[in-house]
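Good morning N.,

You mentioned wanting to compare the apo and holo forms, so I went ahead and generated the holo version with pyridoxal-5'-phosphate. This is what I fed in:
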Amino acid sequence: MEGIEEFLAARKEKGLLRALNPVSKRAEAKVTIRGQDYIDFSSNDYLGLSRHPRLIEEGRLALEKYGSASSASRLLSGDLELHHILEQRTASFKNKESALIFNSGYQANLGILSSLYRRGDCIFLDRLAHASIIDGALLSGARILRFRHNDSCHLRELLKKERQRHKKALVVTETIFSMDGDRAPLKEFVRLKKEFDFQIMVDEAHATGIFGRNGSGVVEEEGLSGDIDLIMGTFSKALAGFGAYLATSRTIVDYLVNTCRSFIYSTALPPAVIASNIASLSLVVSERERRKYLLESALYLRAQLENRGLKVRGSSQIVPVIIGDNDKTQEAARILQSKGYWALPIRPPTVPEGESRLRFSLTFFHTRKILEDLLAAINEAKI
Ligand SMILES: *Cc1c(COP(=O)(O)O)cnc(C)c1O
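and this is what came out, ligand included:
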């Protein structure tokens, strides 16, 4: 296997080798890894719903009623009524006509983009868009144009230059960015839409469950569900389940059922997962104090870090502290780990060169006391 050993050796040499860290135990904010307990700051279980008795109970009932598997793809006999209930609930949660479930967010982005766009079209991507969005756009064969992060002026320049030359056009962004924790200027994109005729797709992976009156996401909070053509998101993060959704028009759902390869050629999600996703949608609406508490924790942590002179980004439950240098970031993460905090260093190629960071992902389980202790540890570590 020519080149593979050299690749691994080079990654190791630069301190960029990625490795797996098996968790043996999990309890609220705590994870146990290789016998050591840590406070977990890298989980996406933002609302702490993964241990909610109702999710577990609904999952268990479905497991007993339907068995462990869906046993086929949706277009064969894997299409349970449960899937349709989840799709209806998702459509109304997102205030769209229709919804389609995918087996993961990665598969959703890959399939949606490659099925709806092709050669002759163009896709405008935020420069920090998630890998699954980039891969879907690449697979589509459309021309890809990347605009500077959250920069609607740059997007406008690109649209002015390129829109006319292509048939269909799409602008894609995350609503809350996974590595920066900041928010896309959706209203500005919607304004551009009137001038240039394109569709908008958003990825609400990190916003679903957290923002908006009902916790539906940033699109709900900003009142834009009528202006965004394709609203994608996952059940795997704040909703503490698995799988993903696209909320859109009935016509697009029908088209995807007929053409989307990542939807067609994969076994349907198991009944227990679907049932707990359904329960989770109603919990998010009814237990709104969870997201309120979470966002207050994020405000507190961000303010305290800034008071210490640290460079903090974003405005969500994702709190990145930019350190810059790869080695310094690695060292900071190592010190925090030795003090019992699991906050991983995020380095290139996940983020741009020179923007290495510690990323603190907050959850409902992070009490004020935990955050105060973390801040004390950060002081001691002289980060
Ligand atoms: C996590 C994530 C995905 C992938 O979702 P999975 O369900 O984990 O495959 C897609 N987009 C964004 C922005 C994400 O953060």
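Residues 104-106, 109, 130, 132, 174, 178, 203, 205-206, 234, 236, 244 surround pyridoxal-5'-phosphate (CB under 6 Å).

Happy to go through it together on a call whenever suits you.

Best,
F.
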